[in-house]
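Fold it.
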Amino acid sequence: MGKIETYDLSDKDIELLLVKQYPTNPCIKCGSKGSCCGCQLERDYKNSMKPLHDAGIEEIFFKIKEMKDLENKIYTLQKELNEKIADFNTESDNWKGVEKLHQGLEEWFNWFNRKRDKFNCRQRLEFAHAKSLDDSIDNHYSDHI
C-alpha cells in the first residue's frame, strides 16, 4: 500500500523551493555531534533555512533535495557506465589486434621451429655421416697398420 501526500503550494512557496539556493547543513560534516553548542556555521545555516521553516515547507524541500541528489547520482553512474562501456569496446578492439599479433607470432614460431628441426636433423645426419666416414677411415687404416 502506498502513501500519497498532497500539498497546496503558493507561488511564493514554489519560488522558495525551486529558485533559491540553500547551503548544505554544516552539522553533517561536524565531528562534535553530541557536544554541539551551536557554532556560527550552524546559526548561519538555520538563518538561511528560516524562510522554508516559516512557510512550513522545510520537509518538502528536503524531499525534493533528496530526489535531486539521487538524480545527480544516477546521472554520474550512467556517465561512468558509458565510459566503462567505451573503454571496454576500445580494449576489445585492442585485444583483437593483440590476438592477430599473437596468431602471427605463433605462425612465425611454428615456421621457425620447423626450420630449426630441419636444420637439427640435417646436422644430425651430417654428424652421423661424418662419424660413419671417420669410423670407416679408422677401420680402413687400422686394417693396414
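DSSP finds three helices and no strands in the chain.
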